[in-house]
Design a protein that fits this description.
By secondary structure, the protein is α/β, with parallel strands linked by helices. It is built from 12 helices and 13 strands.
């Protein structure tokens, strides 16, 4: 075996985002640095009753001061998260593309239910030891805690993986490059001309839109942005939403999924509320990119969108109209835009095992590059 091949690990990555749609699971091969290859991916959706439980858990977790506490329904929700992730790994390893392979490690993010780095706390539920025991594999979990304990924001964590994707891309990608992940929250990774990483949460992603259509019409999401496309933006409500002081804070900065609410659009129709909340996501992404352009003295050469937001045709069209930089879906580059965060946590698990840094001063605000993650071995 060649020397560089000896360094490669097989890693399962898991991600359950704040949109609460399900568990993404992937299998990658990587050295935790510049070599990476995607091998397989699967999805374990949450049933409506499970989504309801997770929404309740996020409500019950608000204001938590002790990250090991499990108030309200969190014990039940943690059992669900653990079970769903065990099932997700089973689905992945049953695929023809994964059969016969033995992963070296699982990267398990868990489910964020409360994130308040200003108070020194971030809470992800899910039992890493139980996952290791059930899957009979080492599990790296609790990725964010060390960064927050060291004074960082604990988020975003995916930028170092974005940089690895950019570096290994078969399609040349000029820098500055902006990669926008639109999940429950939207975050921006900026790869500067010299390769310097800057990252921050720009504002809401899909969470408010999902909450709105669920409340008004019991829908899980605005599929393709069709509801928003049929409505009109209420600019008074949009101005109210944009007045949040978060948008005047300098990066690095991060958000809890419930940092914003739908109160300013409460009186609107389903369609106009969806249009206004979609505009809110678009405007705050544009504002974040504008801040980076001012800071760096140059606009992004390209904007790549990943996460669920890349499938919102209306949102993508609005971004394309608002930005001078070309906007494209991650999938168009051959990247796995839907499961990119899951891939990232497999990659981060390998980096954690090899004591490589996961977070950096310009991505989370931590004082120095920092490794992280807790290792649980199967028993």
């Amino acid at each position: 075996m060649a020397k560089n091949e000896e360094k490669l690990s097989l890693a399962v990555g898991l991600m359950s985002g704040t949109s609460c749609d399900g568990v993404d699971v992937t299998l990658i091969e990587t050295d935790g640095e510049g070599q990476l290859r995607s091998l397989a991916s699967a999805f374990r959706p949450y049933e409506p009753a499970e989504q309801t439980l997770l929404r309740r858990a996020m409500e019950d977790a608000q204001g938590m001061k002790n990250r090991t506490a499990r108030p309200g329904c969190l014990i039940e929700a943690e059992a669900l998260i653990t079970r769903a992730h065990i099932e997700a790994v089973g689905r992945l390893m049953a695929l023809d593309s994964a059969r016969g392979l033995q992963p070296d490690v699982i990267g398990f993010h868990g489910q964020t239910v409360w994130h308040d780095p200003a108070a020194g706390i971030t809470v992800q539920i899910g039992n890493g030891q139980a996952l290791a025991n059930a899957c009979k594999m080492p599990v790296v979990h609790d990725f964010r805690a060390a960064d927050v304990a060291a004074g960082g924001q604990g988020a975003p964590l995916v930028p170092i993986y974005h940089k690895a994707l950019q570096a290994s891309s078969v399609i040349p990608l000029q820098q500055p490059l902006a990669i926008i992940n639109i999940g429950g929250v939207a975050n921006i990774t900026w790869i500067g001309k010299d390769g310097t990483l800057t990252a921050f949460d720009s504002g809401p992603g899909n969470a408010l839109i999902n909450d709105w259509v669920f409340k008004k019409d019991n829908l899980a999401m605005d599929e393709g942005g069709a509801i928003a496309a049929s409505g009109s933006v209420d600019f008074l409500a949009l101005i109210t939403l944009m007045g949040n002081p978060y948008f005047r804070k300098a990066a690095p900065k991060s958000l809890d999924r419930n940092a914003f609410d739908i109160a300013p659009v409460e009186s609107l129709s389903l369609e106009n509320g969806a249009a206004t909340l979609t505009a809110f996501t678009v405007e705050t992404i544009c504002l974040g990119l504008e801040h980076m352009e001012i800071q760096e003295g140059e606009a992004a050469k390209m904007v790549v969108v990943c996460g669920g937001g890349q499938h919102n045709d209306y949102m993508m069209a609005q971004l394309g109209e608002a930005l001078d930089s070309p906007v494209m879906q991650a999938d168009a580059l051959g990247w796995n835009g839907d499961s990119m965060e899951a891939e990232a946590f497999g990659y981060l698990a390998v980096r954690s095992l090899r004591k490589l840094p996961l977070t950096f001063p310009r991505t989370t605000g931590v004082k120095a590059p920092l490794s992280g993650g807790v290792l649980s071995l199967p028993v």
